[in-house]
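go over this:
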Amino acid sequence: MEVGEMEIRLSEVKGKLKDDGHMLYSTGKSSSSSNETLSRKRQREDCSDSLGDVKKAVVVLTRLPDYKISALRPPTPPQFYSEDESLSSSESDLQWEPGNDSSGSDKSKSKKTQTNGQRPKSSTSGASAPVPEPSPIIISTAFGVSPDETRNVRPDLPDDEITVDMMVLARKRHMRWQRGKIVEIITKDVLFSEDGHVKYKVQFEEKGKSLVSGHHIAFDAIPKREQLYVGARVVVNCQDNASHFQTGIMVELPSRRNRLRFLVFTDDHVPIYVGLPLLHLVCRPLEDPLDDLRDGTHKTFMTRYLKDWPRPHLTVYKAGQSISVDLNGVEQRCEVQEIDSSLMQVVFKENQEKEWVHRGSTRLEHMRRIFSVRESEEEQQRDSSD
C-alpha cells in the first residue's frame, strides 16, 4: 500500500468519529465490487493499530448493597407509617370496620388503608339508610395495677383514740349527720349495744344530743391516705353545703383512670367523686360495712360491686346516645351528656333535669338485665350443687 493512499484513508476515518465514541466511516464513492469492500476492511484493520488512542465509551452499572441504599435514603417522618403498621398499631384508638362493598380487591384494599388513625369516609352517593342505635358494650374494667389503687381490705393499723371533748361527726337521724362534741363515753353494761360496742353521747353544734354507737360517729379530722380502702365506711362533706354530711361507702381509690379522685356511693345510691379533704372516716365501723345499709336495691348493688372489685361491670356509652334510666321506680328516656370516668351525666327528656349516674348502676336498663341473668345462673348453680 502506498504511503499517500494510507494518509488519505486515515483522514477519512478520523473525520467520521462522533461524540459517543462510535466510529463511522464512508468511502465517498459507491462501489459495486465485493473485492473492493474486502480490501477496505483489511485497510481498516491495518490502520487500527495506529488509532489505538480512539476507544468506545462504555457505561457499567453496579448494584449497591442494601445497607448502603438504606444509609443514603432520607429518614421517614414518624407520623407516616406503612399500611401494615397503621392497621396493627396497638396505640390506635380507632379501628377500621368493614363495610358492605366487595367490588374488586384493589378497591377493598384502598378502603382499608388508613392515614393517622382516621376511619375511611363513607360514600355520599345516594340516600343513606338510617343507622340503628347501637347497644352499649358491657365491660369488666380493672381500676388499678398497684395495691394502693385496688386495696379492698381494711389496713392493719391501730385505731385512733376517741376521747371526751373530741369533735366528731355523728348521726342525728338516718342520712343526716352533724358536727358535734363527745361529752361522755358510756361503758355501763346495761347500755352496751347488742354487738358489744361502747356508746357515745354527742352534743351537736346546732342543738340537741344523741347517744350513738362507734359506727355512727366519724372523725372530724381528714383521714390519711393509707387508712382508706374500697369498702370503707366514710362520711362525705357535700360541696354545696358545708354543714351537710352524708354517709357512704368508698368504691374507688385514686388512680390514673379516675384522675386521682375518690369515688363514694352515698347510702341513697348517689355516686360522688371527691378529694381527700371532703372525706371523714367512720371511727368504729362494723365488720361488714354493708350491715349498716338498709335492705333494698342499693344494698344488693353494693354487695355485687364489692364482690366484683377490682373488675366491676360498666356500660360503655357515648355522648348524645339515648338510653333508659330508672327515676323513682319509673323508666325515663334521657340523653347522655358527658362521660367522666365511671360516671356519666344524663339529661331527662321529660323535665330536662340533669343527673350523674354510675355506668354500672342497676338504674340502667342494660345493667339490670345482665344482673338478672347472673342471678339466675347463680341460683341454678346453687340448686345443682345441692
In short: The longest helix spans residues 365-385. The helical segments are 3-15, 34-47, 66-72, 83-88, 105-112, 147-150, 297-308, 365-385. Residues 4 and 103 are 81 Å apart (CA to CA). Confidence is low (pLDDT under 50) at residues 17-33, 74-128.
